[in-house]
What does this fold into?
Amino acid sequence: QLHLVESGGGLVQAGGSLRLSCTSSGRTRSTYAMNWFRQAPAKEREFVASITWNGVRTYYADSVQGRFTISRDSANNTVYLQMNSLKPEDTAVYYCRAGDTDYWGQGTQVTVSS
It folds into this structure.
């Protein structure tokens, strides 16, 4: 069993920054690639960013490329999403997911005001 908990969301003005965290607990947590997804109201959940199990490679959606940075601290079982130059269209609930498993966090709300 793997348990994921996101934190760091909040309200920020356009152009601002936030850093989200996803802390995992449970067995074999360090062997998963980790992903961030988001879901805006009345929209489907979409991929945001991913990082390989060893942190060597990262992948981003086109909409966040150059503004968001995913990283991981395996010693502390935490994955981060640094979000800069935020836009109102980044407003969503952000979720972390372990690999392609059914292990998801509960989500953290990010609201960007114009």
